[in-house]
TrEMBL record:
Species for this entry: Roseobacter cerasinus
InterPro entries: DUF898
Protein name: Membrane protein
Keywords, in A-Z order: Membrane, Transmembrane, Transmembrane helix
Pfam family, one: DUF898
Transmembrane segments: 22-42, 72-89, 95-115, 191-218, 230-253, 282-304
Length: 354
């Protein structure tokens, strides 16, 4: 059960509606199909702009300033690179392998470039965001940490997850005001422990109720030809296990971590954030959205997206340290003095969920 936002928090609001978003979404989809994907760059801009424009806090909303041309240029650069890479890999395999290794180390640079672009193209009340992370930091977070995580059999996953969120939040700024992330590592391990506890509990209950185990599953698969009914039932139980154990566990972790991240993030000027999403409610929204979308052949996808956006924004709040008017005016003045840099960035986006 959700505790609720603090009494002094100003909740975010999403003012979009499914009917309006459906009109934009269906046009985006049809034009993207008719242009063999070319229009998808403009479709992405229209989508991000719609959701930003309709997200408010204290009467002020966000905006997205990228153009379809910028996004398309970024995509063409990436596509051209991979075409050249495939040609080299085919004609000169040794050189191709060297380039493949280089590509691994280029990934952190792409991440930084992507986050710079997305931050700079987003604003709140006409104040642009910014991102000041370095490629060196990205190498540590996205190359070194994953290697160490694999070597520790993923028991250090919470350490990596916190590092990713710290890299993203600490390097973002609104105008000249920096964000600060101060979540403790213990909260991430508690979230993981809660998720694993759910999986274990469901697994034990499932075995006790059905008498089914993984050894029985493999035996059923081995005997699939002679007894296909049992094999089908075994596969069905595995799917049931996924929906009853793994999926809820993922939402338990996501909800607990999201609340911790927002509740420990601040913005220079004494501004704080709050989140109070509920894992059961988040799970219900995700599953019911999925069922409705599938049974309507994806025509209700805009409704599902608006429904989720409305829930997440209404359970997210800002606790201002001072009036937003004063903060915005100060950042607009400092932003004008600093100049409007990086507006020529290509729309490179690696789609990180951070």
């Amino acid at each position: 059960m959700s505790i609720g936002l603090p009494s002094d928090a100003k909740p975010f609001k999403f003012k979009g509606n499914a009917r309006e978003w459906f009109g934009i979404w269906i046009v985006n989809l049809l034009l993207s199909i008719l242009t063999i994907g070319i229009y998808s760059a403009w479709a992405k801009v229209r989508a991000k702009k719609y959701f930003c424009n309709n997200t408010y806090v204290e009467g002020r909303n966000f905006d997205y300033h990228a153009t379809g041309k910028q996004i398309l240029i970024g995509r063409l650069i990436i596509i051209a690179f991979f075409v050249v890479f495939q040609v080299i890999l085919t004609t000169a395999p040794v050189l191709g392998l060297i380039l493949a290794v280089g590509l691994i180390f280029a990934y952190p640079w792409l991440i930084v470039r992507s986050m710079q672009f997305n931050a700079r193209m987003t604003s709140f009340s006409n104040v642009r965001f910014g991102f000041v992370g370095t490629t060196g930091q990205a190498v540590l977070v996205f190359l070194i940490y994953p290697i160490l995580m694999a070597l520790t059999l993923y028991t250090t996953f919470p350490i990596w997850d916190r590092a990713v969120k710290r890299f993203s939040i600490d390097n973002h700024k609104l105008g000249q005001a920096r964000f600060k992330f101060d979540a403790g590592l213990g909260a991430f391990y508690k979230a993981l422990l809660a998720a694993l506890t759910w999986i274990l509990a469901v697994g034990v209950i499932g075995v006790l109720v059905t008498g089914f185990s993984f050894s029985a599953f493999y035996i059923a698969l081995d005997n699939a030809e002679s007894d296909p009914g049992v094999a089908i039932a075994a596969v069905g139980l595995i799917y049931l296990m996924f929906f009853a154990a793994i999926l809820p566990a993922a939402f338990i972790y996501q909800a607990l971590v999201r609340n911790e991240v927002y509740n420990t993030t601040t913005l220079e000027g004494g501004h704080r954030f709050a989140s109070c999403v509920s894992a059961p409610r988040l799970l219900w929204l995700a599953i019911s959205n999925m069922v409705v979308v599938v049974f309507t052949l994806f025509l209700m996808l805009p409704w599902a997206q608006v429904r989720m956006a409305r829930y997440l924004t209404s359970h997210t709040g800002l606790i201002p340290g001072d009036t937003l008017d004063e903060f915005v005016n100060q950042q607009q003045a400092e932003g004008s003095a600093a100049g409007d840099a990086y507006t020529d960035l290509e729309g490179i986006d690696v789609g990180l969920p951070v």
